[in-house]
Amino acid sequence: MNENHQVLFRKYRPQFFKDVIYQDLAVGSLQNAFKTKKIGHAYIFIGPRGVGKTTIARILAKRLNCENPDGVEPCNKCLSCMEITKGNSNDVMEIDAASNSGVDNIRDLRENVKFNAMGGRYRVYILDEVHMLSSAAFNALLKTLEEPPPHVVFILATTEYHKIPETILSRCQDFHFRKVPVAVLQQYVETLCVKENFKFDSEGLFWIAKKGDGSVRDTLSFMEQAVVFTDGNLTGAKLRKMIGYHGIDTFIELLEDILDPARSAKIFEKLETFFQEGMDLIKFTWDFLEFLNSLLLIKDNLADRESLNIPVEDLQKLKLQFRELDREVLILLAENLFLIHEKMNQMKLRSSYEVKVYLEIQFRKLILEREKPSVSGLLAKLSDLTKQIQSDIGNLSEAGDKETEVKKPVIPEAKRPTAQIPTNVNKPTATTSAALDEKPSPPRQETPKETVTSSTPDTETKPKSSADPNEMEKLLKEKFAGMEVDPGQFKNL
Ligand SMILES: [Zn+2]
């Protein structure tokens, strides 16, 4: 199997401009240079690793020296082309600037530049990682770039544009290379799978592409490992196992367990199973948190595939499945999980057992939090209440109160954290005590804050029929203490 290693990337290294994926901008410009016969003497290729800079530099070198070019493409058959492919052409020098960063190396290069091309027409110097050159070396290089011999072409490649001196940049034509999107990589990997007779499914391809993180080279080297790990069976299930990801079905189930009080026991059964299976529960927590965050993005139509750990096929499914789920609930959960995850990292728990116990406690707290009334739930209740009040007012209109219109509720202005941090277990679970009222205000009323009806002692006789806006406001303040609410939500009250 080891023979397969490295082979994929080499085997499928593009030899023609047309085979390079995604870098149309750079490739198009270079092809135009050949069409218009305006070949520059110095190019700088800028972009992340593994996206084709060196590959394109080699194709360019080939095309420059090709004996039988086919339009803008090299033939890949003539002696010059074949030598370049094999890496033993005397006219194409690949220099790793990272290990030849000194001024002496560049002086040698300047001496070398004077010689004419041996076989082909051009001497091509490919300087990889050129940002690693010392400043003296850059100066020496600059002299050559200022007066390049006509038969010389420099191709500088770098991942770090900002480290290249302006003087060098101004002498070069710059070409920007981009990270390859997951969808493009996924498609590319699929074509290779077909060629190589690997079994695969769409999710498997997604994970391979995702792990490549925009780099074709990294994608293919991960693919090679995956082929070994899965024995050429690149399915989502096997790849998830390989990278230690649990799959969205697990997360969907867990989220449903949390949301449904009748299912909370399942959370702990799951944790136990994961623990027994030797799963990394800290990573699991993070993955679940990412999942919740993705759900939020999906709900807001901000789901950009590049940043999500969710195959595109599942995006729509998730959107439908959790259509009804309140944003506040999701945010609360995600925020709590974030804190749990952070805490676990800080605590340096000694064993996976400790992690499990800690998580069990935290999940219990989460469930308690969950059982607190949600803002939306409160809104529904309030809406009912308001209707009731309005109808009562209608009935009592002879009282002559001009304020028949219920004043719009005022939201507590205090910006307080949206989530109750799970570490505060001592908090009463039913209604969060209204810290707003507890501030410096004099102890004029020892208001019980349990329920809507008992919260206003002055009017406890008939709270519903009281349309006093101050009472409404107080009531709302208590109910909403600790929650941020978009005032827009009250419009229909
Ligand atoms: Zn050729």
UniProtKB/TrEMBL annotation:
It comes from the Bacteria. Its EC number is 2.7.7.7. Residues 420-434 have a biased composition (Polar residues). Residues 39-181 form the AAA+ ATPase domain. It holds the Pfam family DNAX_ATPase_lid. It catalyses: DNA(n) + a 2'-deoxyribonucleoside 5'-triphosphate = DNA(n+1) + diphosphate. Residues 399-416, 436-449, 459-481 have a biased composition (Basic and acidic residues). CDD domains: AAA, HLD_clamp_pol_III_gamma_tau. Keywords: ATP-binding, DNA replication, DNA-directed DNA polymerase, Metal-binding, Nucleotide-binding, Nucleotidyltransferase, Transferase, Zinc. Residues 396-493 are annotated as: Disordered. It is an enzyme of class 2 (transferase). DNA polymerase III contains a core (composed of alpha, epsilon and theta chains) that associates with a tau subunit. This core dimerizes to form the POLIII' complex. PolIII' associates with the gamma complex (composed of gamma, delta, delta', psi and chi chains) and with the beta chain to form the complete DNA polymerase III complex. DNA polymerase III is a complex, multichain enzyme responsible for most of the replicative synthesis in bacteria. This DNA polymerase also exhibits 3' to 5' exonuclease activity. Belongs to the DnaX/STICHEL family. This is DNA polymerase III subunit gamma/tau. It comes from Leptospira kobayashii. The gene is dnaX.
